[in-house]
Structure formats: C-alpha cells, structure tokens
Design goal:
single chain, mainly alpha, 80% helix, 6 helices, 0% strand
Amino acid sequence: MASSAVLSGAVVAAAVTAVINSVLARRSTRIEERSRVRNTLAEAYQAYADYREFPYAIRRRRTDQKEAERIRLSEELRKVQSRISYYQAWTQAESPETGAAYSELITAVRRIAGGAMHEAWKAPGLENDEGMNIGPDRVNLTDLRPAEEKFIAAVEKHVVAITSPWWKRTITLIQSSALALRKRGTKV
C-alpha cells in the first residue's frame, strides 16, 4: 500500500511538473513572438523614416560630383523602396489592420515626402554649410503625423492582441463576434 502511495505521489509530481513546464514554455514562446513582431514592426517604421529623410539628403547633395550623387541617392532610394514593399506585404500578412495603417502611412509619405523630393531635385545642391539648416519653409513633413499616429496605434493594439493570455483573446474574440452579429441584425 505504501509503495502505491509513493508511486501515485510520483505520478502527481510528474504531472504537475509537466503542466508547469508546458505553461512556462508557452509563456516563453509568447514572449519570443512578441519580440519578433515588435522588432519587425520597428524595422518597418525605420524604412518609412528612411524614406522621409530623402528630401533633406537630396537638398544636401554634393555639387562637385553631380552625376555620382544622383546615382548614389537614386540607388539608396531604390533600396529603401524595396524594404518598404517588403514591410507592406509583411504587415498585411501579420495583421490586416496594421497592414492597412502601414499602407496608409506609406501612401502619405510617398505623396508628401515624394513631392518634397521632387522639389529638392529642382533646387541646386548645397555649396556651403549655411544651407544645411533646412526649415519647414523648404521641407514640411508635418502632415505625416496623423498617419504616423494611426500606424503606431495599430501596432500597439496588434502587439497587445498577440501577447495577451489565451483566455483574454478568447473573450475578445467572442465579444467581437457577438458585436458583428448584432450589427448584422442577428440575435445573440
């Protein structure tokens, strides 16, 4: 009888250990996933930020090597555009809401900073240090702020959603489904 009590105690201890290890492994996986998603979304924002710096880079281009500068800046812009395309696809696949916010951000930066780049190419390159200070009278990107805020809000919402405990995600899913059904006129 005593040996079966020891055996059943050992079985219970093994089961408890397995459950604890499983919970810890799941938590570790969620933490790693959150880190991966946060890093990739930060890289997506960095690609956007790199693009928005080009009006300044074009205005500050070297005047002693015009052709080389034109090629250098065009090549750098091509690399940034390629990264942006990648992150547009990635954000859309990761979360349609985050992808839509990123696409809106990129549409805005291409319109606003792209227009500023167009004007910068028309202006002569800088010949002295005084021209390095480029004010909003020459490059004004303040209209990008609403799209930036919308993207950051979508990122925050997505990161919280993918890292909240399973039971919170389940409750949120049920609530979202019930709300959608009510909007369609279905009784819940």
